[in-house]
Amino acid sequence: MSNNVDLQGATLVVRALDPALAPLLPGLTGLVAETGSVLSHLAVLAREYQVPTAVGVPDALARFPAGTRLTVDGGTGAVEVVRMAAVGAPPAAPRGGADHTEGMAS
Fold first, then answer.
1. Which H or E run contains 48?
2. 0.90 cut: is pTM over it?
3. What is the pLDDT of residues 7-55, one digit of tens each?
4. Is beta strand 78-81 parallel, antiparallel or unpaired with respect to 69-73?
5. I need a labelling partner for 58 at 20 to 30 A (CA). Which of 73, 78, 97, 105 fits?
6. Structural contact between residues 10 and 103, judged by C-beta atoms closer than 8 angstroms
7. What amino acid positions are annotated as catalytic residues?
């Protein structure tokens, strides 16, 4: 991963939870991993930083390419693509909570 990439406000989608990603957690709005454990070091740190994290999401890298808007529910592990509303349509009410957030896949 390049140090030149700005991940502030992004949802990071990775193949595996690597502890080397820990310095990125404070700027993330979500973390999605294809493999790993909810008890892994990085997943625990993510919860401490209040970054909703979903682990064990099959084919996450293929399903959520860079730039895809996602919501991540850290309580259930659900990851959903945010569908953009038509111009002039009223905005959808946000689904709140510390374990639920929206961001762009990186």
1. helix 41-48
2. no
3. 888 999 999 999 999 999 999 999 999 999 999 999 999 999 999 999 9
4. antiparallel
5. 97
6. yes
7. 41
